[in-house]
Amino acid sequence: MNYFEFKDNELFAENISVTELAHEYGTPLYVYSAATLRRHFDAFDSAFSGLEHLTCFSVKANSNLSVLKLLAEKGAGMDIVSGGELYRALKAGVPSDRIVYSGVGKKAYEIAEALKADILMFNVESVGELHRINEVAGSMGKKARISFRINPDVDPKTHPYISTGMKKNKFGLEIENAFEAYKTAKDLPNVDPVGMDCHIGSQLTEIAPFLEALEKLLKFNQRLKDIGINISTLDLGGGLGITYDEEEPPHPKEFGEALTKALKDQGLKVILEPGRVIAGNSGILVTEVVYTKKSPTKNFLIVDAGMNDLIRPSLYGSYHRLEEVVKKGRPEIECDVVGPICESGDFIARDRNLPEMEQGELLAAYSAGAYGFTMASNYNSRPRAAEVIVDGDDVIVARRRESYEDLVNLEC
What is the pTM (predicted TM-score) of this model? Predict the structure, then answer.
């Protein structure tokens, strides 16, 4: 459930009119629902109540400080992939022992920052990274808790750009290489191999790939026990999908029941890294129709949100449901919804049936709470959108709109 609903043909975010938000804060505008964020976190986290677990929100999905703070207050940990995300998580008040550090390219200074903060665990993705963590930890007189990201070669049946658990992907170590890496780690003085990690992809709509990967991990865990390595933590990553169009992903409860059944007697603390399933449908992108245009073969709605604001359609061919913010009962036409960026690939939707809207009217793109603003850029020297969080009757400006001065204030 989300809290974006029509009242008398006008879209509301919780108790606030989206039209009023657009007039007050301008467009393009990201609008998040606090109630939806809380509800989605509770639905996911409670699905694993039968296991010792920690739900670590994937910061890359939505890294706004207010969003992170809201989830931290619900008990969430954070899955980070950079020093900047570590900084954000700590700034938002997330306890360091609820932070897990993933990512393939950790630099020495980022490792040192995480060790200084005393995070829960590093998810190590290569032997080179293992040795670097050992060296940095040794120089600081610390011992780093680590797990290895194991690549189980499981097809997640998702878009190839967000598949991460197959042999051809850059992430993690193949099982045999991982086994050798654990043996190496066992003998290194400044690391402590406490866990296993696996993340097979994003926007998964089936449970079967998760269970296939889990079966391989549990067999691998027995091999580790046989050589005297007793791990205590199993990080299963994230990746559970949401409905953008006609997808029918499993409910978190169904997912939790399947994993609980498989893991209940394993004696492992489970870490989960959901992002999209919590944040995706908690946000919309509101954009204004700047112009309408007709050619001999196409109708266009030219809006003020471009691929710099929401790149998923251009990058992945992704679908975002679109609706007029104020419904007027007009007949639909087939049109392309395009932005102001000087690229042919700048579109929000192609060949979409929408009411014949007019200049100055508002359009909402749904399911924009994850991988929306976090992937935004200043391409074409466009200031990035504002972000607001609606919490009942209250509106929090989570990020003000950038100004032209913001665009150049780091330049000489």
Answer: 0.93
